[in-house]
Specification:
Strand content: 35-45%
Oligomer: single chain
Shape: globular
CATH class: Alpha Beta
CATH architecture: Roll
Distance between the termini: 22 Å
Length: 318
């Protein structure tokens, strides 16, 4: 029963995200996917975590095809977001001019001398009513080839392959089940994360919630070097996407008992103490959508909403 409640909780938290419009930021360095949309109180019953009895995911060779390359935050108040995440995870920040003379700047997030992600603040016009949200990027050998493969297998083109001068090459698509995802060329000048995945305070897991897991699994195993491993979370199937023997991402079906919610990719950050992290986040102005709870065989997680409204999860493995 506890696992079933956890699964329902997970779905309700994901109801706070919505699909990003095709319109993208002029500087093209931020990517829109799913974002919060329900009221916070409805999400407080929120979210679950990867498959029961699943070991903590392991990172494949750094930024090889099909591994996570980057995560960035689109926010309405980058100054406040810097203070919040720096205090929560110990990140340092560096502002860089937007490429091609575009207005504004892009902030690189740093931890222990390496990079863990980025953030930016589009104009209200560029946001187009879009709430703050986190984006995820998958590393690929060839953006153009992967994008062509994705669209040939049913993905909708959102942003065809393009270059960000001096930074890298990327593209954005909407998968056949309507979740948004970005891809990043691994040999770009900026290859992506330089801090080991799973380091405390760094990104550690990407997870897809969708209405059609069979279609999504077929799609992602065709465009990335992923295989699927079916496990369970309570009464629900939980699919791990694996590269070789390493778990790379997770996926769970949005069941009829979970209510309406848009397909979306979510992200987790690794922490050393879930309760302490939640307490700190609350003190910094975050909302707790899901209080700390256990995912059997995986760890203890919680779901939070930052002061501007972006949703993210934290987990202590083990």
């Amino acid at each position: 029963m506890a696992k079933r409640k956890a699964a329902k909780a997970k779905a309700k938290a994901r109801k706070k995200t919505t699909k990003a419009p095709a319109k993208r930021r002029a500087a093209k360095t931020v990517r829109r996917k799913a974002a919060p949309r329900a009221k916070a109180k409805k999400a407080a019953r929120a979210k679950a975590r990867p498959a029961a009895k699943k070991p903590a995911p392991k990172k494949s060779a750094a930024h090889s095809e099909g591994t996570w390359a980057w995560a960035d935050l689109v926010t309405t108040d980058v100054a406040d977001a810097k203070k919040f995440y720096s205090a929560l995870f110990g990140w340092k920040t560096t502002d860089m001019p937007m490429p091609a003379g575009a207005p504004g700047f892009y902030t690189t997030l740093e931890l222990k001398g390496g990079t863990v992600g980025g953030m930016s603040q589009p104009t209200p016009e560029q946001m187009g009513g879009m709430p703050p949200h986190w984006n995820l990027y998958v590393s690929v050998d060839n953006v153009d080839a992967t994008f062509a493969n994705a669209t040939a297998n049913g993905a909708k083109p959102v942003m065809p392959p393009f270059d960000i001068p001096g930074v890298g090459r990327m593209a954005v698509f909407q998968d056949p089940t309507d979740a948004f995802l970005s891809i990043w060329q691994k040999d770009s000048p900026n290859p992506g994360f330089t801090v080991k995945e799973g380091t405390l305070g760094a990104f550690c897991w990407g997870e897809l919630m969708t209405h059609d897991t069979a279609r999504a699994a077929d799609f992602y195993t065709k465009i990335f070097p992923w295989t699927k491993k079916v496990g369970s979370f309570g009464e629900h199937d939980y699919i791990e996407f694996q590269k070789g023997k390493d778990s790379v991402a997770g996926m769970m079906k949005i069941g009829a008992d979970m209510g309406p919610m848009p397909p979306s990719w979510g992200l987790y950050f690794s922490v050393g103490d879930t309760e302490a992290t939640v307490k700190t986040a609350e003190g910094l102005g975050a909302k707790v959508l899901v209080p700390p709870m256990d995912a059997e065989g995986v760890g203890r997680f919680a779901v939070l909403q930052d002061p501007q409204g972006a949703i993210f999860s934290v987990i202590k493995f083990g």
